[in-house]
Specification:
Number of helices: 9
Low-confidence stretches: none
Strand content: 5-15%
Distance between the termini: 36 Å
Shape: globular
Number of strands: 7
Order of helices and strands: EHEHEHEHEHHEHHHE
CATH architecture: 3-Layer(aba) Sandwich
Strand order of the largest sheet: 3-2-1-4-5-6-7
Largest sheet: 7 strands, parallel
Bound molecules: NADP nicotinamide-adenine-dinucleotide phosphate
CATH class: Alpha Beta
Oligomer: single chain
CATH topology: Rossmann fold
CATH superfamily: NAD(P)-binding Rossmann-like Domain
Helix content: 40-55%
């Protein structure tokens, strides 16, 4: 018996990086996993087979997280296919970094749409099912940048701070329905998103972290296993940092 046996989870943006690691850890813990991707179609389809090998039900959906109507269709399709929805993980995210002086309106809108509006979209679509079941765990992936801010990432930081305010509000509104909502704030996690950066910059970041290394996607996924499982049944409205004491 895994920590998540019998539960159905929906994870957005699971074709790579942290989302992919969450999907695999969830399947290992016995959850049935629905997940989304957008541009990485082959990787998304390959993940479905990889997850099914754990003996659970898995299905990938190509769905744009920033699209309100698409989120409603997605949640309806997941509930029709899986019968229930116990855990929702909003992980899909992008960066469009630039100094404020050079940041375009498109770069602002795109990041707010994919990172922040996406959380509203799926939570709005999922609450009816969770309220009927009188149970649910919602996990939103924010960032230490949403707590501290970061030069060159005003759009990204704003989206991630917004997620924290949204998370706490959802926890307050839906607590009486036994629906929990928490945020996970990773620090520097080594994924494809960070692999494009130059090695010298990356080493500088590693050196500045008290634990002297970047985190692995699985380390973020483990926090999500805890928050999705009944092990965290009285934890709601929290932001859990997974950052090797980077922001302490
Ligand atoms: P990643 O490797 O670039 O993966 C991002 C995922 O999001 C991909 O699966 C991508 O799918 C999906 N995605 C992007 N836009 C989407 C959209 N419009 N609709 C649906 N899916 C979409 O990034 P990551 O490093 O794993 O980051 C995952 C989350 O953790 C993000 O929210 C990020 O902000 C957060 N985070 C990361 C770090 C870090 O150090 N890596 C630190 C703090 C927070 P496709 O490729 O199929 O489009």
């Amino acid at each position: 018996m895994g920590l998540l046996s019998g539960k159905t989870a929906l994870i957005t943006g699971a074709s790579k990086g942290i989302g992919r690691a969450i999907a695999i850890r969830y399947a290992q813990e016995g959850a049935n996993v629905a997940f989304t991707y957008l541009s990485s179609v082959e990787k998304g389809q390959a993940l479905e087979d990889e997850l099914s090998a754990f003996g659970i039900k898995a299905k990938g959906f190509r769905s744009d997280a920033s699209d309100f109507k698409a989120a409603e269709e997605l949640v309806n399709a997941v509930v029709a296919e899986f019968g229930n929805l116990d855990i929702l993980i909003n992980n899909a995210g992008i960066t469009r970094d630039n100094l404020l002086m050079r940041m375009t309106e498109e770069a602002w809108d795109e990041v707010i749409g994919v990172n922040l509006k996406s959380c509203f979209n799926t939570v709005k679509a999922a609450t009816r099912t969770m309220m009927k079941a009188k149970a649910g765990s919602i996990i939103n992936i924010t960032s230490v940048v949403g707590i501290k801010g970061n030069a060159g990432q005003a759009n990204y930081a704003a989206s991630k701070s917004g997620i924290i305010g949204f998370t706490k509000s959802v926890a307050l509104e839906l607590g009486s329905r036994n629906i929990r909502c928490n945020a996970v704030a990773p620090g520097f996690i080594e994924t494809e998103m960070t692999a494009v950066l130059d090695e010298k910059t990356v080493q500088g970041w590693r050196d500045a972290i008290p634990m002297k290394r970047g985190g692995q996607p699985e380390e973020v996924a483990n926090a999500c296993v805890f928050l999705g499982s009944d092990m965290s049944s009285y934890i709601s409205g929290q932001v859990i940092q997974v950052d090797g004491a980077m922001l302490t």
